[in-house]
Structure prediction request, 238 residues.
Amino acid sequence: MGEQKPYRRILLKLSGEALMGGQAYGIDPLVVESVAAQVKEVVESGVELAVVIGGGNIYRGVAATATGMERASADYMGMLATVLNALALQSSLEKLDVQTRVLSAIEMKELAEPYIRRRAVRHLEKKRVVIFAAGTGNPYFTTDTAAALRAMEIGAEVIMKATKVDGVYSADPVKDKGAVRYEELSYMEVLSKQLKVMDATAISLCMDNKLPIIVFNLLTPGNIKRVIAGEKVGTVVK
Prediction:
């Protein structure tokens, strides 16, 4: 296989947990600043970048439903948590003079623009970083699914899923020392082996639309730029 060509428009999927750093919950300002610095590097190289952000560092809808809360209510609360993260990232980016727009699937016009596909694309064309908040705006859909959906809507060439480990493993590498890292996987392998890349809805959406996913370690400085330049980083699902 030849060298991967550099990407022109990408969608970066950040989990809420990635923003916690070493904390038990919440937002670690140092991690957000580090992400913002990496994003600035990427934008300065001419790449158009959109971000979908999770909310698990602030509110875990799954945990709430386990204690008896109605699923829809828990999911809406999780969507609001993603807005907090989006505003934190926007603030860090703007401190670095990176033009940023937050577009929310749930209307809250004092804080963010409503999500309109054409407007999002226009912002990207003007080299602004677009942060998509509030998931898809619907309960029962994860922010992974929101990432797959938004990536297709804006015509992104790849989803870059940022995690705390350097790719997809056969088992949890923290708990299992024998866990093996995959360099490349097919969508069907991810589904059949039930690997923790994204949920099944998101993987199926990517498979139907031939949208590759790259899973990489966010905590290694410069990794986003390496992926975009076509270097082999992390695990590729295609």
